[in-house]
Each structure stands twice: as C-alpha cells, then as structure tokens.
Amino acid sequence: MDDAEPTDRGQVDPRNRLNDLTGREWIYALRSVIATRYPTSGVEGYAHALRRGHPSPKPPQLMAELIRFFTKRGDRVLDPFAGVGGTLLACAIEGRQGVGIELSAEYGAIYREVCQRLELEPQTVVVGDARRLGDPSFIDQQLFDLILTDPPYAQMLAKPRTGERKKRGQGEATPFTADPADLGNLGYWEFLGELRGILASATGLLKPRGYLVLFTKDLQPTPEHHNMLHADIVAELRSLPNLTFRGYRIWHDMSQNLYPFGYPFAFVSNQVHQFILVFRKEA
Ligand SMILES: C[S@@+](CC[C@H](N)C(=O)[O-])C[C@H]1O[C@@H](n2cnc3c(N)ncnc32)[C@H](O)[C@@H]1O
C-alpha cells in the first residue's frame, strides 16, 4: 500500500448510521484518488496466483476499503459481477455478509478454492446470469445495504489489441467467457442498456439510503464517440428512479505497465486509473 492510513483512530460519532469509522478515518476515506500497488505474493497477495485465473481480479484490500466506508459490520453486500470474488473476500475480511452473482462456474470454483486456501469464510455465490436478479427463485430477495461491483468495461477485453501491445506479443483478446450472456461480449451501446437493466433490478434490492458503488474504465476515443464509459454509465443510470449520482473516486493502479503508445507521432493516453462511481438510493 502506498497511501498511509491514520494510526490513531479517534472518536466514533454516535449519529453515524453509515459506517463504523471515526471522524479521522472518514476524512481519509474521502480522498478522491486512491493510489496503491497491492502485493501479489505472500499473505497480502490473497492467493493472487489462483485469482489470476481471471483476467481482471480486484484486490480484496481495495474492496475492503470501500466496504468499510459504505457499510457497518454485519451489513449485507451484493456484487452482481463477482468474478473470482474481490468483493466477497473483502466481505469475509471485514465481517460483512456477501452475495455474489457470477456467470462463469469456473470463476465461482476459483473463488471457493481461494477461500479454502486463505481459511476465509466463503460467502454466497450464485452461478448464473445477473439479468435474473429480480427472480426470487434465483436469489433470496432480502434487501442489501450496499451494491459494490466491477462489471465488464463494455467490450474492452473481448477485442484483440492493436499497436504497441500487439507488437509486444500481447495482442490476444482475453474475454471473461465465450458466453453470449456475458456483458463483456456486447457492443458499447448494447452493453450500456443491459447494464442499466441489471442495475435497475439490483437497486430494487437495495435499502433506502444504501449506495451503489461501481468500478469502470474508459475506452480510447474514436472519431465516432468519446468513449468515456464512466460518463455514459452516469448518464444511463441517472434515469433509474430514486438513484442519485454522488460523485466518484479514482483508483490509480500503480502496478499497471506503461507503454509508448503513439510514439513518436501522437498522444495516446496510458490509462492507469479506474473510476469508482458512487450512487445513492434516496427512497
Ligand atoms: C470485471 S469482472 C469482475 C472481477 C471481480 N471484481 C474480481 O475481483 O474477480 C466482470 C465479471 O462479470 C461476469 N459477467 C459478465 N456478464 C455477466 C452476467 N450477465 N451475469 C453475471 N456475471 C457476468 C464476467 O464473467 C466477469 O467475471
């Protein structure tokens, strides 16, 4: 970790209904940029060698930081795109109850193996299509305190890479699955519509004043569209009833490699950050 957390906890305000943080910890949790390089080996690696059976696992410590701000101990957290369980592992670490939906049985199995390896309590994982979230025979319709999720970034991983990365032998596409139900296999606009539908059902399962916290990343712009996926997701979700956009944080992933994209002709951004979009259900 590169950001140092406060050591002296300070006081917990008895009026705080959102989380178990003290004033000092609250301030630290508001900084707009989280700049971190999480270990990938040893105890702090959280069995990364197993989790990297998935193309983009999230560090459990990062998810834990968000869970500590948006919930209290014992609260219920939903992740409709659970992957190999970054959110669910953080729930076990932080004493929250996690429920994850994941399309791929293989990723669900890796998650269970990680829990065994780390001796962490496995959370509930439902293997299937998150479009079924509103169906009581698919998941228990008990309400959640937080939705914390990291959906595909439209087709970002399903397209072969070009340019500098192709030259370096990294041109292969790495889709999450070959399943047509995988949102990562959909074109940009279709992806946005399907994501909206899933998050509409998910927020139907969210308690009033509960938060929806969502990771995303922008695609490179094209002449046709700016491809700022974070902005398009905010625009899409603003139409959901009772959901308000509350702002975002940025995760600067300091472990990302840099490439000489565009050299020596033109500007092409090296995206080493992701957006953490924050919405609240108002009623
Ligand atoms: C960015 S990854 C999530 C990674 C996760 N945060 C982790 O730590 O492993 C997105 C996941 O969504 C899953 N997915 C895509 N479409 C889905 C759908 N319709 N229903 C449920 N899961 C889906 C993919 O299989 C993929 O594992």
Key words describing this protein structure:
283 residues; alpha/beta; Rossmann fold; 8-stranded mixed beta sheet
- Kindly report the CATH topology: Rossmann fold
The unreliable regions are: none
Q: Which CATH first-tier class would you pick?
A: Alpha Beta
Ligands (ions, cofactors included) = S-adenosylmethionine
For the record, what is the CATH homologous superfamily label?
Vaccinia Virus protein VP39
Number of domains: 1
The shape is globular
- What is the SS-derived class? alpha/beta
Radius of gyration: 19 Å
Total helices: the number is 8
**Number of strand segments:** 8
Order of helices and strands: HEHHEHEHEEHHEHEE
Mean pLDDT: 94
Gap from first CA to last CA: 37 Å
The level of helicity is: 25-40%
Profile the largest sheet: 8 strands, mixed
- Give the strand order of the largest sheet, numbering strands 1, 2, ... along the chain: 1-7-8-6-5-2-3-4
Taken as a percent bin, the fraction of beta residues is 15-25%
- CATH arch. level architecture: 3-Layer(aba) Sandwich
Structure notes:
The chain has 283 residues and is α/β, with parallel strands linked by helices. It is built from eight helices and eight strands, in the order αβααβαβαββααβαββ. Helix 3 crosses helix 4 (86-94) and helix 7 (188-204) packs across helix 8. It has an eight-stranded mixed β-sheet, sandwiched between helices. Helix 4 links the parallel strand 2 and strand 3. The protein has helices spanning 23-29, 48-51, 60-70, 86-94, 105-118, 163-167, 188-204, 229-237; strands at 33-36, 76-79, 97-102, 124-127, 144-149, 206-216, 243-253, 273-281. The chain is globular, with a radius of gyration of 19 Å. The model has no long low-confidence stretch (mean pLDDT 94). It has one domain (23-281): Vaccinia Virus protein VP39 (Rossmann fold). S-adenosylmethionine (SAM) is lined by residues 54, 56-58, 81, 83-86, 101-104, 107, 129-131, 150-152, 176-177, 181-184.
